[in-house]
């Protein structure tokens, strides 16, 4: 029996190969994918009891006939955006943007495939801009955050020009998840080089621009090269971005970014190693747990108001529903990460972690 973790990992790795795979597939009715790949897809991923090694040619070029062509993009969900902002700027700065984040319209997902059904709207674009402004204000209003994001020159009273290199080579490339192009550098230069404005205001304008950029809000994939047959090979930075968002719902961490910069994500073994490393992080563990809960339909409850009155008398039904979902995820995480449960052991187990009194009863 294939290990449950190995099965989900193999299915998820298949999603790295092609924009049309698993829940990453784009179609006419879904502008972007859901948060997690689902194991029971028809895209050719491994099934229970099977083991098949993917070649590098299968992993990176996109030749699935159902896939989208080069230039398609994947937009960040609210959850991914929150994770990304927190990992880039810290929880304090994220807190300063909480009001703006609350204005972002809720995403609508298909219950089974978890493909995102909601599309870009004027309200969403306006919310993106307000979030960018709020994060920027939170950074430049705090001395420590300003120094962490822009470097020591931002709080030392230096001339704006002396900070440009640090902004471009530091935070800008990390935010956009790729090296900057010359046109990026030129535009940031015009934002920072405003003699009538204070240095922090200029840096804040540059940060607002970066956080409003489609290259931040969307996972734009232009590819490193295109073959005559129409397939496109992802760049090292695009591979890093796919790995990170598929397995942890956030931007690549410094270690993954470094491997992309050094060109070390060009083999299946390298991608597998990074995927396994990220799955051991708190965000990776949470993502995998939630993916399994969604696949097994234990991420929600039925309408408990239909239960016999004797079972719900004196019980806070919404709290009971929340306890059920929480217990299911705790069970999955424990079996997965502490007991290394197989697929066979996971499903019929009678182990329970019903700590809430109303659920235990």
- Record field, number of beta strands: 4
Shape by Cα distribution? globular
Strand content: under 5%
- Uncertain spans: 1-51, 53-72
Q: Largest sheet at a glance? A: 2 strands, antiparallel
List the secondary-structure elements in sequence, H or E: HHEHHHHHHHHHEEEHHHHHHHH
Please bin the fraction of helical residues.
40-55%
Structural class of the secondary elements? mainly alpha
How many helices does DSSP assign? Answer: 19
Rounded to an integer, what's the Rg over CA atoms?
Answer: 22 Å
Distance between the ends:
35 Å
Keywords:
two-stranded antiparallel ribbon, mainly alpha, 19 helices, 361 residues, globular, disordered N terminus, 3% strand
Tell me the layout of helices and strands.
Blueprint: H1 4-17, H2 56-59, E1 73-75, H3 78-89, H4 91-96, H5 98-102, H6 122-140, H7 143-150, H8 160-176, H9 182-192, H10 199-212, H11 214-217, E2 218-220, E3 225-226, E4 232-233, H12 236-248, H13 254-261, H14 268-279, H15 282-295, H16 309-312, H17 317-338, H18 343-346, H19 357-360
Helix pairs in contact: 1-12, 6-10, 8-9, 8-10, 12-13, 12-14, 15-17
């Amino acid at each position: 029996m294939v290990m449950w973790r190995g099965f989900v990992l193999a299915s998820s790795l298949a999603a790295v190969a092609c924009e049309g795979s698993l829940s990453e597939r784009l179609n006419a009715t879904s502008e972007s994918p859901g948060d997690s790949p689902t194991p029971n897809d028809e895209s050719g991923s491994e099934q229970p009891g099977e083991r098949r090694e993917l070649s590098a040619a299968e992993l990176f070029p996109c030749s699935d006939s159902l896939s989208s062509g080069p230039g398609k993009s994947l937009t960040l969900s609210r959850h991914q955006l929150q994770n990304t902002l927190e990992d880039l700027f810290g929880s304090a700065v994220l807190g300063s943007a909480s009001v703006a984040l609350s204005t972002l319209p809720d995403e609508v997902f298909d219950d089974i495939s978890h493909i995102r059904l909601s599309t870009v709207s004027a309200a969403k674009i306006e919310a993106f801009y307000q979030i960018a402004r709020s994060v920027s204000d939170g950074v430049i209003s705090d001395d420590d955050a300003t120094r962490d994001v822009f470097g020591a020159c931002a709080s030392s009273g230096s001339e704006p020009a002396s900070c440009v290199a640090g902004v471009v080579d530091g935070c800008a490339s990390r935010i956009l998840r790729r090296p900057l192009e010359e046109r990026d550098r030129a535009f940031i230069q015009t934002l920072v080089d405003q003699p009538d404005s204070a240095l922090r205001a200029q840096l804040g304008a540059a940060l607002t621009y970066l956080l409003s950029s489609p290259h931040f809000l969307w996972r734009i994939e232009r590819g490193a090269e295109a073959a005559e047959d129409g397939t496109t090979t992802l760049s090292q930075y695009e591979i890093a971005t796919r790995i990170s968002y598929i397995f942890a719902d956030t931007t690549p961490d410094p270690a993954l970014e470094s491997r992309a910069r050094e060109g070390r994500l060009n083999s299946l073994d390298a991608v597998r190693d990074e995927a396994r490393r990220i799955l051991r992080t708190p965000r990776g563990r949470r993502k995998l747990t939630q993916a399994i809960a969604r696949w097994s339909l234990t991420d929600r409850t039925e309408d408990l108001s239909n239960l016999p009155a004797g079972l719900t008398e004196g019980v806070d039904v919404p709290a009971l529903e929340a306890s059920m979902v929480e217990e299911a995820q705790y069970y999955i995480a424990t079996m997965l990460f502490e007991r290394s449960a197989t697929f066979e052991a996971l499903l019929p187990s009678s182990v329970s972690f019903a700590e809430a009194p109303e659920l235990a009863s």
